[in-house]
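Recall that a protein's primary structure is simply its ordered list of amino acids. Everything else, from secondary elements to tertiary packing, is in principle encoded there. The following example makes that idea concrete.
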Amino acid sequence: MKMHGLGNDFVVLDARASGVPDARASSALVTPALAQAIGHRHFGVGFDQLAVISDGAGDAHLTFYNSDGSLSAACGNATRCIARFLMQETGKTQLHLTTDRGDLAAQDMGDGLTAVNMGQPQLDWDEIPLAHEMDTLILPIEGAPTATGMGNPHCTFFVDDVTAIDLPRFGPSIENHPLYPERTNVQVAQLIGPDHIRMRVWERGVGVTLASGSSSCATAVAAARRGLTGRVVRIDLDGGTLHIDWRDDGVWMTGPTAHVFSGTLSREFLDSLT
């Protein structure tokens, strides 16, 4: 299936009927080479992330890949898209999903909106992780960004004008910064008004994307920690708007989803990879 959340687009493989149990379905069916091939926007399908649905302890287990073939423990917008698909399939309005990030709850919010609890943010340096012990609120990097973990690492810069940042040039330099041993997602965020942020994102292993759910959560957490906003925030991305609510039980993200098409990868395409 091809899906997107605010233009943050995904290929979703449903492995529940593959006969490979639980989360092993992902490693059994998807190699880094296959992920890269499907992700190519000219020779494949194209995506920001690839997600695999497999059987799990809850309603389903989700595994995520970046377009460079690397694994990602979390992908908020893909989780919302798949949750909407599973809700329509089962008739449920609440789901229990498992990921490498942990257990995630999803809920139908009505009016075509889907919410996912992305769990509590990781705020300690070794959980994000960073290379060594430091204050994660203000990193020793030019621009004084904030580090946050949402199952994947994030680096958030608060700037006066997000449109003035050359993100294709700036993003890679921070993604591969030595303070982040597992690389990082990069956000540039601008305070528009009370509890209202404009954000652009460079995703680790992907590049510039129109939206990012985990990046939105990380930016909302960083803004609240720095006293710039409260814990309920509207975030406007290049592809649309997400609403983030940092509650006692985790960071909830709400927004629209879209299921573009369902299809089958051709034998010719798959044989070309061998």
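The radius of gyration is 18 Å. Helices lie at 24-29, 32-39, 76-90, 167-175, 213-225, 267-271.
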